[in-house]
């Protein structure tokens, strides 16, 4: 994916911001308490680009939901964040470099995105957004948990 330079810089700034979960809000005086995860540079760059795309996908999902386009919200979630996206992200190859608890958070996030995709489709039938929004919140909760516990070197 090629982005305009200014947009790419904005995504870099947003993706590099520390997301802090309420339980991790108190950091020790010594600095960042998150576990450092070292990846080979090309893999680290690829993984961070995937996370930026997840953030962009969540924003696109919100736009689709606001427009009442539940099919688009579902498609974006499943194709870009859900279980169907794992192969395109190279998840199987990267997972072996990650701590087991971090892998589990990632799996929960991808599964939650697939559950959201179903709830977004349901919202198109029921016209009730609440279950879809709750399901999307579960996706973001896993992102917050991972960013609160881990950082890449």
Describe the protein:
By secondary structure, the protein is mainly α. The chain has one domain. The protein is built from seven helices and two strands. Strands 1-2 form a two-stranded parallel sheet. It starts with a helix and ends with a strand. The relative contact order is 0.17. The N terminus is likely disordered.
Q: Distance between the terminal alpha carbons, to the nearest Å?
A: 24 Å
What ranges have pLDDT less than 50 throughout 5 or more consecutive residues? Answer: 1-26
* Multimerization state: single chain
Average pLDDT confidence is 86
Q: Rounded to an integer, what's the Rg over CA atoms?
A: 16 Å
The major β-sheet equals: 2 strands, parallel
Helix fraction by DSSP (H/I, runs of at least 4): 55-70%
Strand order of the largest sheet: 1-2
**DSSP E strands, number:** 2
